[in-house]
Design goal:
The chain is α/β, with parallel strands linked by helices. It has a single domain, classed as 3-Layer(aba) Sandwich (Rossmann fold), CATH 3.40.50.1820. About 30% of the residues lie in helices and about 25% in strands. The chain has eight helices and 13 strands. The strands form two sheets. An eleven-stranded mixed β-sheet has the order 1-2-3-5-4-8-9-10-13-12-11, with helices on both faces. Strands 6-7 form a two-stranded antiparallel ribbon. The longest helix is centred in the first third of the chain and has 21 residues, at about 5-25.
C-alpha cells in the first residue's frame, strides 16, 4: 500500500472540498422532490427478471457482488416512454462523497429531464478513505474491487429493465469519479460511446506514464473508440494540472494529448469556446467519429464548476448528446 500515507492526506483535502461542494449547492434545494420507488434486491445481475416500472421518478437498487452489497440510484426523466429507447448516463462521485447527494448536487437530474436520458449515480465501495472507486492508483489502494465489472453489471441491469439506447451509453464523474470515468473509457469503450470527467486523469496502475501505457493497451483491446470531454482547473491542488508523480497522476496536458493519440487525431487542437476564465481546446479531426475536448478553468480549483461563466452539467450533456454515433463498420 505504498500510496496509502499520501492518499490519507489527499482524502483530507478532498473531504474539505466535498464539504464545500455540498455547502455551495444548499441553495439548489429548489429542485423538485423526486418520488422514491421501493428498492429491488438482486440475486443476480444479468439474469435478474424484468421488473415492472411506473415511469419517471427515482429508484434505488442493490446488487450482490463478491465484495458484498452494492447500491446505485437511477433517475428516470418525466418524458420517459418505454417504447422509445433513451440514452443512459452514469455519474461517479468523488472520494469520500455520498452517491445520493452527489447525484442531486451536480445538476444532472435537471439535465435528465431536459435531455430525456436516464441518469445512474452509483455508490462507491466504503474503503479506508471513505466511499471510493478502484480506478488504479486511487482510491482503493490494496483492494481488489472490480468496479469496471460492477459498472458493466449495472449497465446490463438497466438495459434489461428499461428502454435503453445501447448505442448511446455515457459516463461522467468528479475527482475519483473522473478517474473512474477515464478508466472506463480505457477498459470498457465497447460499452461507452463517450465520457466527461471533471478534475480527473488516467490513473491506471502503475500510474504516471505506465498508467497511460496501460490505458493504450486496454483501449486497443476493446476494439472500440470513445470520445472524451475533460474539465479541469489549473489551480487544482488535489489533482494538479501539472500532475503528481507520487500519487501516479499524469499532468493534464499529457493526459489529454494521449487521448488524442489513441483516437488518431490530426493537427493541433483549436479554441472554439471562451467565456470569462474558461476556454477550451478541441481536436476537430479524429478517427472513428470521436471528439476530444479539454476545458481549462483558469484559476479554478478542485471543483464541479457551476457559475456565471460555465455550467458543468449543461455543458457535459450538450457535449455527450452531440457525439456522433460510431461508424456502421464499427458496430
Amino acid at each position: 500500500m505504498k500510496h496509502f500515507v499520501t492518499l490519507v492526506a489527499l482524502a483530507a483535502v478532498i473531504s474539505l472540498t466535498a464539504g464545500a461542494f455540498l455547502d455551495t449547492h444548499d441553495a439548489m434545494k429548489k429542485w423538485k422532490t423526486t418520488k422514491h420507488a421501493a428498492a429491488h434486491q438482486l440475486s443476480a445481475t444479468v439474469e435478474a427478471p424484468r421488473l415492472p416500472q411506473n415511469g419517471s421518478g427515482e429508484y434505488q437498487y442493490t446488487m450482490q457482488r463478491p465484495e458484498g452489497t452494492r447500491t446505485f440510484w437511477a433517475y428516470v426523466p418525466q418524458s420517459y416512454n418505454p417504447n422509445t429507447p433513451v440514452p443512459l448516463l452514469f455519474t461517479f462521485h468523488g472520494l469520500g462523497d455520498d452517491c445520493y447527494s452527489f447525484g442531486h448536487n451536480t445538476g444532472l437530474i435537471n439535465q435528465s429531464d431536459h435531455g430525456g436520458f436516464i441518469l445512474v449515480y452509483p455508490c462507491g465501495y466504503p474503503g479506508l478513505l471513505g466511499n471510493a472507486w478502484n480506478a488504479g492508483t486511487c482510491c482503493l489502494d490494496g483492494y481488489t474491487i472490480d468496479d469496471v465489472q460492477f459498472t458493466r453489471d449495472m449497465a446490463a441491469f438497466m438495459i434489461q429493465n428499461w428502454s435503453i439506447d445501447k448505442s448511446r451509453i455515457f459516463t461522467s464523474g468528479f475527482s475519483n469519479g473522473a478517474f473512474m470515468t477515464e478508466t472506463l473509457l480505457c477498459e470498457a469503450s465497447d460499452l461507452f460511446l463517450a465520457g466527461a470527467g471533471v478534475s480527473g486523469v488516467v490513473v491506471l496502475l502503475p500510474g504516471n506514464k505506465g498508467g497511460l501505457e496501460a490505458c493504450n493497451k486496454d483501449y486497443a483491446a476493446t476494439g472500440k473508440y470513445a470520445s472524451l470531454l475533460h474539465i479541469h482547473g489549473n489551480f487544482d491542488f488535489v489533482v494538479p494540472w501539472t500532475g503528481d508523480e507520487l500519487l501516479g497522476f499524469p499532468d493534464v496536458p499529457t493526459d489529454y494529448a494521449d487521448w488524442a493519440t489513441r483516437n488518431q487525431c490530426q493537427g493541433q487542437p483549436v479554441n472554439t469556446f471562451t467565456n470569462g476564465p474558461y476556454s477550451n481546446q478541441v481536436y476537430q479531426s479524429c478517427q472513428w467519429n470521436t471528439t476530444m475536448e479539454l476545458v481549462k478553468h483558469d484559476g479554478g480549483g478542485h471543483e464541479w464548476p457551476m457559475d456565471q461563466y460555465f455550467d458543468a452539467p449543461s455543458y457535459i450533456w450538450n457535449y455527450l448528446s452531440n457525439v456522433a454515433p460510431r461508424p456502421t463498420d464499427d458496430e
